[in-house]
Design goal:
By secondary structure, the protein is of the alpha+beta class. The protein is about 35% helix and about 30% strand. It folds into four domains: about 110 residues, no CATH class; about 90 residues, no CATH class; about 80 residues, no CATH class; about 50 residues, no CATH class. The protein is elongated.
């Protein structure tokens, strides 16, 4: 068996029927439990991330002519911040789609192409609704306009004796675009809900810790980003043999662990001491941070040098003096400045 924690498909992008599990979270049939951030706000109070509930379901799969069954927990949470973001995005999409629909049939003028049949108008309108994911949320009305024109038959200037014909010119005009407030309200109720599944027991992984753990998934993805791009640059791989690829991957994975450990230890020390470091951001020297990256920490030591001079049969060593910031970061890592100053030793 293994423990997994993964997301279920998201909602809130199109106007669809409200899922049962969201309905149960809204109608009071399920008791909602709050989830708070591990960090406190500037007033020392808990930061609410949202609320939700969980239930257990039985799953099965046919494998090697046998039916395998297992139970998994489904954790559902409505994130207040995520809900706010989706709500703003929905309002923006509705406004943009309305604007596009109204501009679809401009008033007759030179250079303004007109829509001559209803099918074309409906296809273009549906394309807009689909593009901005507001199907079922907007309703448009249009009308058919006819204009009878008299034209002379043949070429040349018109005269009383020339034959004439009547030509009916048709255009379609969108007269109004309405918001379907009932559908929009129902959709807004689904915004911000997320669902995760895990087979870990509540004793080992509580509802709140499961949600917080998944919210920290970016830390794992960031490690892969470091490995494949800057600063480790596994991709592209400039080696040819399989053993070289394997060896380089192992070597860089060790470097990745070192970066992660440096960053974790320094951040933990700063948070335990309620301390912030200043001077790690060259673009803003006065900026304070309690969550420095390993890259910025290492860059702070990029200007130090060890100079070795041989003179008259004697060898002299000299190291660049450490700044207070550099000394403090060594202390946060559990290393004293002597580990650095010890490099400076003269021998004859």
């Amino acid at each position: 068996e293994h423990c997994y924690l993964s997301p279920l498909p998201q909602t809130g992008k199109t106007a669809t029927q409200m899922p049962v599990w969201i309905q149960q979270g809204l109608d009071g049939s399920r008791e909602l439990r709050p989830v708070f951030s591990r960090k406190l706000d500037k007033n020392g109070e808990q930061i609410s991330l949202g609320q939700g509930y969980e239930f257990t379901r039985t799953c099965s799969i046919d494998q090697d002519e046998k039916r395998v069954e297992w139970e998994e927990r489904v954790l559902l949470i409505c994130s207040s911040k995520y809900r706010e973001t989706l709500s703003k995005n929905l309002k923006k999409r509705l406004a943009t789609a309305t604007e596009k629909l109204e501009a679809l049939t401009p008033a007759p003028a030179r250079g303004k192409r007109q829509i001559r049949d209803a099918k074309t108008l409906e296809e273009k309108a549906e394309t807009i609704l689909t593009q901005y994911k507001v199907q079922g949320l907007l309703r448009y009305h249009f009308e058919r306009e006819e204009k009878v024109l008299v034209q002379y038959i043949g070429q040349g200037r018109g005269s009383e004796n020339r034959k004439k014909k009547q030509v009916t010119q048709v255009r379609y005009q969108i007269t109004s675009v309405e918001r379907r407030e009932d559908a929009i309200t129902e959709l807004e109720k689904t915004l911000g809900w997320k669902a995760y599944v895990t087979n870990e027991s509540p004793d080992q992984l509580s509802f709140e810790n499961a949600v917080l753990t998944y919210r920290d998934e970016w830390t794992i993805e960031r490690g892969f980003h470091r490995l494949k791009g800057a600063p480790l640059s596994l991709d592209p791989v400039f080696v040819k043999r399989n053993d070289q690829v394997e060896g380089l991957t192992n070597l860089l994975s060790i470097a990745l662990r070192a970066l992660t450990l440096i960053e974790f230890v320094v951040r933990r020390g700063l948070q335990q001491n309620s301390e912030k470091l200043t001077g790690l951001h060259a673009e803003n020297p006065k900026k304070e941070t309690d969550s420095p990256t390993a890259e910025r920490i290492l860059k702070a030591y990029s200007q130090i040098t060890l100079t070795i001079i041989e003179l008259a049969g004697q060898i002299f060593h000299h190291v660049t003096p450490l700044s207070p910031l550099q000394v403090r970061m060594l202390e946060l890592l559990g290393l004293g400045p002597e580990i650095y100053s010890g490099l400076e030793s003269n021998s004859g």
